Amino acid sequence: MVARKAETLAVKGQVDPMSTAPFRITRVIKETQDTFSMELAPEASGERFSFSPGQFNMLYVFGVGEVPISISSDPTGQMPLVHTTRAVGAVTQAMWKLKAGDALGIRGPYGRGWPVEQALHNDVVIVAGGIGLAPLRPVIYSILADRDRFGRVVLLYGTRTPEDMLFRKELEKWRSRFDLEIHMTVDRATGSWRGNVGVVTTLIGRSPFDHQNCVAMVCGPEIMMRFTVLELQKRGVNDDRIFISMERNMKCGIGLCGHCQLGSSFACKDGPVYSFAEIKALFTKREM
Amino acid sequence: MENLERILAEHPFFAGLAPQHLKLLVGCASNMVFKEGQFVFHEGQEANYFYIIRHGKVAVETFIPQKGPIVIQTRSEGEVLGWSWLVHPYRWHFDARAMEVTRAIVLDGKCLRGKCEEDHDLGYEMMKRFTQIIAARLEATRIQLLDVYGSSKG
Questions:
Q1: Is residue A279 part of a domain?
Q2: Given a cut of 60, is residue A149 above it in pLDDT?
Q3: At a CB cut-off of 8 Å and minimum separation 6, what does A221 contact?
């Protein structure tokens, strides 16, 4: 596999990587009970915001604080910049209260994203848990924009309940495609759910893909990723073909403050996406 | 029979099984179709069979008074359904119901239990394979209990 380079593109015209550029919220979409997406447009110019799938921005709610949030939009430029997040902390809860027309500060994009280029001509297995689908959505857009250059593409998505599923309209649209295989499952069935029940790892054995020549991209809670990696390994997928996103304690976003240090690397700069081969020695460390 | 033998021989669950054991299993096997909503087995009943799902989906569920049936897990194409036939007291602990038209190969576990007693090599092979299934279900249940998608501060 080809080594990936960290990409540190900055918001256009942004010289100091620690300074934010003002963006205006153009639309807020309530995805679930506690998760929402914001469409954003730069105040300064109408230029397209360039990023790679898996990269993140630092979003600043004025007077409250700054948080790292993955970009969930289409990197091929077919839609505005979108961030999807769950309202759980002080900053994201303040963000949840913002409306269309309100402003936010953004700096980024930062980090090393998903290995879409490396996945060319291979089968691709995307395993998402809960809100982990948000950073993986740009991968799906990228693949679909260039679909013929990939092998079989499988998306396995697990959530707590059917109501917790993100991007439901899109999932339905994608499910109707013949060139994209989607399996969804919930931990707890509610209402009229007629689909799979059980953890997302149980879907791996049900999905036909070339275990030797595939690239697996996994995003979700760390514990879900741990069990997913085990399941992929059990089926013969090599560690250097399994990629996970480690979104830990990022503060500066540019590898200076050390909050997100993982051994000798910084998740914000050298990650958040790592191959499992790179990270496995650190993956089960309790505190870092 | 020939068709059943081929299907069982190609199924990963039976991979590596000695030809004489496979032949024995084929003798205990038959095809079955369950309509949507039809019960495959009921909680508390004698567990005398297990199933290889060929097509369709089955919900493993339990009934909670005032709440109705709660689906715990689903099993679908290619998967094995049911291991209580191998574990004393050989009774189903949950209900299983077809969520859609489901085609399965049903294997007579009661007959197989007797054959496993007579031929411990076969018994050991079945135990090894079903232990994998039971361990996988236990692990899945543990992850389910962890409620991994719960909110975390951020």
A1: yes
A2: yes
A3: A129, A130, A132, B148, B149, B152
B138 contacts chain A (CB < 8 A): no
Q: Do A215 and A269 sit in the same domain of this protein? A: yes
List of long-range contacts for B133-137, beta carbons under 8 Å, 24+ apart: B133/B80, B133/B83, B134/B83, B136/A202, B137/B73, B137/B83
Q: Note whether B153 contacts A89, CB cutoff 8 Å.
A: yes
Tell me, what's the ipTM?
0.85
Residue in A130, A189, A205 closest to B149 by CB: A130
- Which residues in chain A are contacts of B152 at CB distance < 8 A? 88, 221
Tell me the pLDDT band of A49, cut-offs 50, 70 and 90. Answer: confident
What pLDDT does A259 receive? 80
Q: Is A92 on the interface with B (CB under 8 A)?
A: yes
| Residue A252 pLDDT class (50, 70, 90 cuts) | confident
Domain that holds residue A30: 21-109
Total tally of structural domains belonging to chain A: 2
CATH class of B2-146: mainly beta
Do A223 and B148 lie within an 8 Å CB cutoff? yes
